[in-house]
Amino acid sequence: MAAFDPWDPAFVDDPYPAYAELRDRGRVTYYEPTDQWLVPRHADVSALLRDRRLGRTYQHRFTHEDFGRTAPPPEHEPFHTLNDHGMLDLEPPDHTRIRRLVSKAFTPRTVEQLRPYVSQLAGELVDALVAKGGGDLLTDVAEPLPVAVIAEMLGIPESDRAPLRPWSADICGMYELSPSEDTAAKAVRASNEFSSYLRELIAARRKNPGDDLISGMIAAHDEDDDRLTEQELISTAVLLLNAGHEATVNSTVNGWWALFRNPDQLAALRADHSLIPSAVEELMRYDTPLQLFERWVLDEIEIDGTTIPRGAEIAMLFGAANHDPAVFTDPERLDLTRADNPHISFSAGIHYCIGAPLARIELAASMGALLEKAPTLRLAAEPARKPNFVIRGLEGLSVEVG
Fold it and tell me: Of the candidates 109, 203, 288, 363, which lies 20 to 30 Å from 389 by C-alpha distance?
């Protein structure tokens, strides 16, 4: 297992050869450093994402003690209160109820109505990049676009948006493997500050509702007049912001870095902008923004003759699954015309990303604006990879225009 090392910068820079080794080893491998069972093949990952014997949480069925796990330290409580009331870390019936209520406000029509705003904003951001002859694609285009879009959806005033990205980055640090105490302290602070801000915003929207998503979630109810609690509202808003831009930001810079390394594909895309939809899907497959997704084993399962007991943790390797040659022809090759592309970058099953349609609109809009307005866009400097393994991205992507 020397090749799989999520703390090795060389592995983080390019984990895909190690994934190939893992797939060749078999369908499941125990990894002692994180006490997890690694699952690298597409068929297994896809099936396990839908398997109700696994869960994002176990607390709907077991105590920490019953499950053989230790409760989080009390000083981490603000993070876990925020995290554990969001859809991503809940199981039915709570997950079903919250997702149903959120879906009443987060409708396909609501998302589609954002398309003109997303296109306009993407164009303005690229115009500014072109006007100064280049810059950092990460901070100039990739970050501000999805942050502004989800903040606009939620109804967060423009003057309040500066802390959103730092809060998100600090909270998402806890999703890495074995986060440090310093990471946890930053996540706790961000959880407290973000929650306090949203509590005030929710109170204001209760008094004066608008046509924003927070007002919609406050008003949402079902036939039993069931509504979201204040904590569920706060946790959902944070989840939508974090998940609503982290993947989009990283997909944008990972994608353009891949295009610069594959000039034939970039040339084909520049020659034919109709490739944008398939390019978005292929770039998310080729360098997956979320490399690993965890599940708890609620009831004993067997994978290829290996029994995995209740209380164990499974790490589904999205990046490995998206490069599985059993599913993708020549998976190490970037192919923007790839027609059959069942990547799992948006997950699957009941936790399939509710924001996937919005992410696709944003990614297509920024790509289209860059192709149209910056046709000579080129790499100015070799980028540095962020040290994170789970959430895969770059420190920046320096580009030139003209």
Answer: 363
DSSP state of 391: B
> What is the Rg, in whole angstroms, of the alpha carbon atoms belonging to the chain?
21
Domain that holds residue 64: 9-400
pTM above 0.85, yes or no: yes
Identify whether 3 is part of a domain: no
CATH code for the domain in which residue 122 is found: 1.10.630.10
Residue 107: partners with Cβ closer than 8 Å, 6 or more residues away: none
Q: Is residue 259 part of a domain?
A: yes
Q: pLDDT value at position 105?
A: 84
Cβ atoms 134, 398 nearer than 8 A: yes
What is the model's pLDDT at position 341?
97
Contacts with 62 (C-beta within 8 Å, 6 or more apart), sequence order: 298
- Tell me what pLDDT residue 225 has: 78
Q: Is residue 382 part of a domain?
A: yes
- DSSP line for 76-128: GHHHHHHHHTSGGG--TTHHHHHHHHHHHHS-HHHHHHTHHHHHHHHHHHHHH
Cβ pair 27, 48 in contact under 8 A: no
- Give the pLDDT of residue 223: 67
Token pair of 50, please?
């839908």
pLDDT for residue 1: 53
Output the CA torsion sign for 56, 174, 360, 17: negative
Q: Which residue bears the tokens 């609503």?
A: 244
Tally of structural domains, the chain: 1
Q: What is the DSSP string of 213-252?
A: HHHHHHH---TT-----HHHHHHHHHHHHHHHHHHHHHHH
Q: How far is CA 259 from CA 93, 256, 270, in A?
A: 43, 5, 11
Which parts of the chain sit beneath pLDDT 70?
1-2, 223-224
Structural domain contains residue 2: no
Taking alpha carbons only, the member of 56, 7, 54, 8 closest to residue 28 is 54
